[in-house]
Specification:
Structural class: alpha+beta
Number of domains: 1
Protein name: DUF2256 domain-containing protein
Number of strands: 2
Organism: Hasllibacter halocynthiae
InterPro entries: UCP037205 (IPR017136)
Strand order of the largest sheet: 1-2
Pfam families: DUF2256
Helix content: 25-40%
Radius of gyration: 16 Å
Shape: elongated
Strand content: 5-15%
Distance between the termini: 54 Å
Number of helices: 1
Length: 61
């Protein structure tokens, strides 16, 4: 059985949407390098913001 790690010893990233730090989770073990958002809500908000920005003609794109 693997040794327990303290939460302070786990790798940390900053969320791409809200900027808050979040720690490694076991369910992200295989794709930790690809995880960008701290929660499903931040992931949804990022998609919504991106689509609003693309739909807005005043954005200049």
């Amino acid at each position: 059985m693997a040794r327990m790690r303290r939460k302070a010893d786990l790798p940390v990233k900053d969320c791409a949407t809200c900027g808050r730090p979040f720690a490694w989770r076991r369910k992200w073990a295989r794709d930790w390098d690809e995880v960008r958002h701290c929660s499903d809500r931040c992931r949804r908000d990022a998609r919504r913001r991106r689509s609003e920005r693309l739909d807005d003609p005043a954005s200049g794109r």
